[in-house]
Amino acid sequence: MKNHVFCHYNNYINLDQVSALKNQTFTVHCLYPQSAEKPEITAHDEYKECKVHSLSNDLESAEKEINEILTQQVGDEDKIYVRLSERPNLYELVIMQIVLESYSKAAYFIKGRELVPAFSEAEDKIQDLYARLHDLICKRNYHSAGKLVYHSFQSPELTKMLIFGERLKSLDLAVSEGQEDYFDLLMETLREMDEDEALVEYADSMKNLRNRDQKSFISYLHNSAARLYDENKLIDFVVLYYRLTEELLLYALGWDIDWNKPGSGKDTFIYRKEAYFKLDIPKERVTRHFHSYLRTLNREVRVLEKKQEITQVDQYFIKLHRLFNDEELQEVLKLRHAGVSGHGFCDFSKEQFENICEMNPLEKLEPIFSFLNITFEDGLFELIEKSSLYLARKGLESSQQASQGA
Predict the structure, then answer these.
(1) How far is CA 289 from CA 38, 119, 292, 293, 396, in A?
(2) In degrees, to the nearest 5, what angle opens at C-alpha 202 toward C-alphas 320 and 372?
(3) pLDDT of res. 71
(4) Considering only CA atoms, which of 34, 51, 33 is closest in space to residue 42?
C-alpha cells in the first residue's frame, strides 16, 4: 500500500505539520497549470519521491488528465490525501470532485493541520444507499427501488415517482378521483431541477397516452424498444420493434383505431385526426396487424403506378411503400415469429440484427420517422429516472440533516 498526497503547485506543505501523518512515507504529486511557471520542488527524504504533473489550462481537459494520473499512480489498496487551500482554486475543486466520486473510501483531505476523511461513516452509508438506488432505477427496477426507499428513509415524492415508473411499464396510467397525477409530479420535479421547459412540455404531452394518442404511443414504444436493446433483452425487443413498426404504418396511412368499437375488423378503423394524407379504408377485410396494413398499401400502390399522372398524394404513398418494404427491415420483422414470443425457438444477438441491417435496427426506422416528421425528445423513462435520482439525493440529504438535528 502507498500513500499519495496531491497538492496544487502553490499549496505545497510540510507533512510533518499534520500530526496524523507523521512517520509515514508518501509520494507527493504536485499539479500545476501549463500557464504557470513549472515549480522547483525537491523531494524530502520522508516523501521518497515527488512528481510534478502539468495540467491543461482548459478545466475540461485538466479533469481528464487528473483522472489519468489517478488511474496510473494510485493502486487499489493505496491511500489518497488531497491538500486544500483555505479557499480552494478551480483545480483543487476538480480533483476534490473526482476523488469524492471515485476514491472516497480511500481518500482524506488535508485542511490546515487537520486530516478530514472524504466521507464520514454516515455519509459513506448514504453514498452506498444512493449507489444501490442508482443501479436499481437505471435498470428500471422501480419496484425494488421503492422497497429500498421504504425501508431506508421517507420520501413521498420519490415513492410516487417510482410507482409511476413501474406502472408506466404496463401503461397503467389511470388516475383516481382526488389522486395526484404522476405526470404533474414529474413536471414539477423537472421544473425544480431547472430542466429545459421543452422537456416539461414533452412530459405534459405524454399525458395523451391515456387517450391512446398515436404519436405519444409511438414515442413510448420507441423509448421502450431502445431501452430493451441497450439492456440486451432482445426477445422482448423484437416484439416491441414489430409493434412499433405496426403502429408507424397505421399512423402513416392516416388511420387510427376506434377503441369504443369491439372486435378487430375493418369496422374498428377510423381516419386519424389531422392526417394530411389518408389512404381510403378498403371494403375488403383488414385486420389490426402490420402485414394486413402492408398488403392494403401494396395493392393501392400497384394501382397508382399504372396512372399516367402522379399526384402529390400518390407520391406520398409510393414513397411509403418503398420505406416499409425495405428488404432489411422486413428481415428484422420476420424474426418476431422466430423467437419464443412468436412461438419459435430462436434466441437473438445484436450481431444478428446488425448483420441484417448493418446498424442498430432502430436506426433502420429513422428514414420513416424523418418522412413522417416524427421527432423524439428524451424518453419518458429517462425523465422519470433523472427525476427519481434527483429526489433520491434530495431525500437522503434531508434524512441526514434530520438525523444530525436529532
Answers:
(1) 71, 57, 5, 6, 48
(2) 10
(3) 87
(4) 51
CA distances from 248 to 55, 324, 368, 370, 372 (A): 51, 10, 8, 12, 9
* Interatomic CA distance for residues 398 and 375, integer angstroms: 38
Rounded Cα distance between 358 and 399, Å, is 50
Residue 283's SS3 state is coil
User: What mean pLDDT value characterizes the chain?
Assistant: 82
Q: How many helices (H) and strands (E) does the chain have?
A: 15, 8
Find cell 504529486 and name the residue: 29
Could you give the dihedral angle defined by the CA atoms of residues 81, 87, 89 and 90, in that order, rounded to the nearest 10 degrees? 90
Q: Where are the alpha helices (DSSP H) in 253-344?
A: 290-304, 312-324, 327-338
Distance CA 155, CA 159 (A): 6
Residue entry with cell 378498403? 282
Contact by Cβ (8 Å): 26, 103: no
Q: Which of 66, 76, 61 lies closest to 29 in space, CA to CA?
A: 66
Q: What is the pTM of this model?
A: 0.66
Is a pLDDT exceeding 60 seen at residue 45? Answer: no
The predicted-structure confidence for 83-94, as pLDDT tens digits, reads as follows 877 776 777 778
C-alpha cell at 179: 389522486
CA angle 334, 336, 342 (to 5 degrees): 125
Query: What does the alpha-carbon distance between residue 338 and residue 344 come to, in Å, rounded to a whole number?
Result: 4
Closest C-alpha to 157, from 134, 183, 114, 189: 189
The whole-angstrom separation of Cα 173 and Cα 126 is 32
- The letter for the amino acid at 386 is K
Q: Which three cell numbers stand for residue 257?
A: 383505431
Q: Bridge-partner residues for 51, per DSSP?
A: 29
